[in-house]
Amino acid sequence: MNGVTEETRNSSDISVLSCSKNKNPNQPKRKMKILTIIVRSLLGLIFIVFGLNAFLHFISMPPPQGLAADFMKALFMSQYFYVIAILQIAGGALCLLGRFVPLGLTLLGPVIVNILLFHIFLQPTGLPLALVVSALALFLLWAYRRAFSPLLQP
Questions:
Q1: Where are the domains of the chain?
Q2: Could you give the count of Cα atoms lying within 13 Å of 104 in the half-sphere of its Cβ?
Q3: How far apart are CA 97 and CA 123, in angstroms?
Q4: Which of 9, 64, 68, 111 lies at a 20 to 30 A Cα distance from 35?
Q5: Which residues contact 71 (CB under 8 A, 6 or more apart)?
Q6: Which residues of 113-134 are buried (b: 16+ CB within 10 A; e: fewer)?
Q7: Rounded to an integer, what distance in angstroms lies between the CA atom of residue 30 and that of residue 32?
Q8: What confidence category does residue 31 fall into, taking pLDDT thresholds of 50, 70 and 90?
Q9: Is the pTM of this model over 0.85?
């Protein structure tokens, strides 16, 4: 029997069975890491696409009405809109690439707050996408909370 006793074979069978019953303790961390990669890639893509759209105009959007139109007109006339687009592209690229994600979130944070407030107060039709983007950003802030924890200490 090639030097394997019945006792050795039984103990190895038990160890194989016991390993299959035990969950991998790193499994939740692995799932969280995969979810974080998906969320940061999605958020990065959203901001890269909409940031590039400010320059390339490949997504046609209906013009806003009322106060939203006045607000957008002020952003365009002052060229401020292009600064916001550059911040969106830079922050989105940092998130998408996975390099300096906290810096990318720092660049995107004020943009996300303004997008959310714009859709709450001026153009509620875009509020669902603004809420999704806000939720994605909040998830990433939680996932990278160690990088931001010094900001919350006295």
A1: 27-152
A2: 25
A3: 31
A4: 111
A5: 64, 118, 122
A6: eebbebbeebbeebeeebeebe
A7: 5
A8: very high
A9: no
